[in-house]
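FAQ: What does a ligand-bound record look like?

Like this one, built around biotin:
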Amino acid sequence: MRIEDSKIQQFDSLASTNQYCELLNLPEVEEFTVIVARSQTAGIGQRGNHWEAEPGKNLTFSLVLKPAFLPVADQYQLTQAVSLAVADWLAPLVPQGASRVRIKWPNDIYVDDNKICGMLITNRVTGDRLSASIVGIGLNVNQRVFPDWVPNPTSLSLLTGREWPLEELLAGLLAAIEARYEELRRDPPGTLEAPYLARLLRRGEKATYLYQGQTIEATITGVNRFGHLQLVTLAGETLSCQMKEIQFL
Ligand code: BTN
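The answer part, i.e. the structure of the complex:
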């Protein structure tokens, strides 16, 4: 199945596509509804940051999913499925993308050391299941100049030296997300872990992090069932980190 065009709602300007979805009566919203904005006036990023995107040049959209098949304890698998879908879809569009496109834990998409895509996923819970998820995605496409305060951005256009048609990209990206989402629904739990780890930035490499206010050297070994990043320090200590505890330096 492909996400039907009728489920894609285009807006010229919204404060934030995620915020728009949050205000909908989600139980009445059909799964795979997509809210796209040509421009966001108050795009929301991770950790309460603003998401910067030049109007008309990028993909900024939110997708409503109903992953009732997922227990709340397994919600990280949705993050895995979506980030893997975006990274795998993007890789062939970028020169030498197979080795350059990486997932920066938990769900940023990087090309080398630069961020090309960010995600904001919020979940609604009913009982012990996920009743709805709003998957917000910002992908830098044709923007070539970014404000100084945006840390290490890149875009598809900067990487390839050409302009890209937004509508076609959106269709391809949605199909890729849908395919991984259907795998998640159908396959045994944990199936996507290996391909996700294979794309994980800095996995198996010694690198520097800010952990609980201290600079440390450590190696990422994986991600546990709850989505916590697993690292081993130089001293051989194992760390299990939530997002607010660790920063990549
Ligand atoms: C991040 O900080 O990396 C997450 C960025 C998420 C941005 C997207 S753009 C579409 C959707 N609407 C929002 O307000 N945020 C997400």
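Follow-up question: can I read anything off the structure? Yes, for example: The chain is about 25% helix and 35% strand.
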